[in-house]
Design goal:
The protein is mainly β and 195 residues long. The protein contains one helix and 13 strands.
Length: 195
């Protein structure tokens, strides 16, 4: 039988771990918003209307980037001091979620840009793997999703990202996957959005 002293020491040792786990956003708390950060970038994720997630990123100064994404899976619009971009999906998005390994989705879209709107644009999403990633002390099950953007049949962007279906956010992007130049750009810390 464990003595009262040992039980007290064990409880004291476990308390920080339990408290830290409670600070990790979950599928239940993510709907209230969350904050993800890396280096000098801090991103606030908030559920907007319908399937939209609003992401406001600050970079340590007055400039901000505002993104609206489809369930945190891919961007529909992006605006900052240097760029303003929006695209309208022509395909039905209702069957994309929930994701599962092996899924492949082709989304036709039109960019809101007079110079490029006449072109044929396609966004291809392929779920290639399931894995677990850490963001700070928090762990999440994610899907690795390959995203390829094509303009008139030619690839203009090709990357993979790690998407958390519980949080409805992309936790990391993978550039030049499988090559010697592969780079993973991910968030380093996460917390619930203060209300």
């Amino acid at each position: 039988m464990m003595s009262l002293f040992r039980r007290t020491l064990l409880a004291a040792a476990l308390l920080p771990t339990i408290a830290q786990a409670a600070d990790c956003p979950s599928s239940k708390t993510a709907k209230n918003g969350l904050v993800l950060g890396r280096l000098d970038a801090l991103s606030e994720f908030r559920k907007a209307k319908g399937p939209l997630v609003q992401i406001i990123t600050s970079f340590g100064g007055p400039d901000k980037q505002i993104v609206y994404s489809f369930e945190g899976l891919f961007d529909l619009s992006r605006e900052d001091r240097k760029e303003k971009y929006a695209r309208y999906p022509l395909s039905d998005l209702s069957n994309i979620l929930p994701l599962k390994k092996g899924d492949r989705h082709t989304i036709n879209f039109v960019p809101f840009d007079a110079k490029r709107s006449a072109d044929d644009w396609v966004l291809e999403l392929t779920v290639t793997a399931e894995e677990t990633v850490s963001v700070g002390r928090c762990k999440y099950d994610v899907f690795r999703v390959k995203q390829e953007t094509k303009q008139n049949g030619k690839t203009t962007e090709n990357l993979s990202f790690l998407y958390s279906p519980d949080l409805h956010v992309t936790l990391a992007k993978i550039y030049d996957e499988g090559t010697g130049n592969q780079a993973i750009v991910g968030y380093e810390h996460i917390r619930p959005l203060a209300r």
